[in-house]
Amino acid sequence: MTDEKTFRLLEGADWGGISKELLAFVINWARKYPTLGHGEDPRFLVLGVSYEDVVQEVIVKAFSGERNWDPDTVDLVPWLKMHIKSIVDALARSIAANQETDLVTRDEESDFELGLEYKISMAHQHSGEQLNNPEDLLLKKEYIEQELQLIYEAARDDEELELIILAIQCGCESEPRFLAEELNVPVKDIYQQVRRLQRRVNVLKVKNERSKVR
Amino acid sequence: MSDQKSDRTGKELLEALNHLFSEVDPQTSEEIAAVIKVGGYDPDAFAMRMKAVAEQAMSNSPLNWRNKARIELEQERKRLKAHAVRHDGGRDFLLKRVKTLLEKYSGVTGFAYAHHRNLDKASDDDLLSLIEELEHLSGLEKLEDDEN
Fold first, then answer.
1. Which of A13, A27, B68, B104 is deepest in the core (most CB within 10 A)?
2. How far is CA A149 from the centre of its chain?
3. Which residues, other chains included, contact B86 with Cβ-Cβ below 8 Å and sequence gap of 6+?
């Protein structure tokens, strides 16, 4: 496909709707990593790097051609999600290792005043401080208890959801196919149940945030 | 349930549950909006900001032929400068290039060739800048031809 045709497809995309889908995806995907998120401000993956930065990065690079989308090979949204995954995975690995990686490069081409790579390099410089801070460790413990409480509450009186939590608590791998095997149910059912649990957790979280504001 | 596996601690359990959640994408617009709100964002305000980002990126995109032509022109200018600098007889090259371009334009557009008769007295920088202008004109002409 020519650049011009690719451009026309990008130009015609519904960026409002796509960006929401991408933001939900990056928030959800980052949950996989204990080193990401969980800060005081829920909008940040790590200090100085927000979920919005990641979405903005993939949009800008799609148009700049720096990440080369071939519409004949893959649809736009899955392609953008694939790049989000690679950014988040690399960030999690590098933060966990607390080492600078090839992600930390000079940002010459980016349209941002402060590019994502620059923000990530700054996050590296602070990640060690964060992990060693005793106050943060205590807050983290409190956070874990609150989060688990919320999940238990969301699953209460729903046998299928309680079984999923119990299976994971007992050491089952936390992936739908392993849970399906362990609980002897179709994997499709597990996806539906997890989606239900997630939906309830999110409703409770939003409710809790609203009551905090009041 | 298998008894070979050991119980997880609270931290491990939360990590495992979060891992499980990350495996299941939100699908409906309600689910997407709920995840976004939990992430501390207003879905509609965020969408507006990203639309603006996309529009900005669109206007600068080298995939767009208009921008591509502009970028190619810039590259051509750089190449020309580099060539002039590298060239042993740099000044001779510049003079020859200016004359070629002026001849091209004096016939076509009535370009004021007379203003540029004293090229020998012009500095190298002046010659380079004149070449840039003429090359730019040539580029614009090409763009207009493409548009027509």
1. A27
2. 21
3. none
Are residues B130 and B93 in contact, defined by beta-carbon separation less than 8 angstroms? no
Q: Residue with structure tokens 């688990």?
A: A148
Instruction: Give the separation between CA A118 and CA B46, rounded to whole angstroms.
Output: 22
Rounded to the nearest integer, the mean pLDDT of chain A is 83
Cβ within 8 Å, pair B37-A175: no
Beta-carbon separation of B1 and A10 below 8 A: no
The pLDDT of residue A7 is above 60? yes
Q: How many CB atoms lie within 10 A of CB A193?
A: 21
Which of B11, B13, B58 has the CB atom closest to A169's CB atom?
A: B13
Q: Which of B19, B27, B38 sits opposite A206 (nearest CB)?
A: B38
B68 touches chain A (CB under 8 A): yes
Model ipTM? 0.79
Q: Which amino acid is at B102?
A: L
* Residue B139 host element (H or E): helix B124-147
A6 CA: distance to closest CA in chain B (Å): 8
Task: Give the three-class secondary structure for A42.
Answer: coil
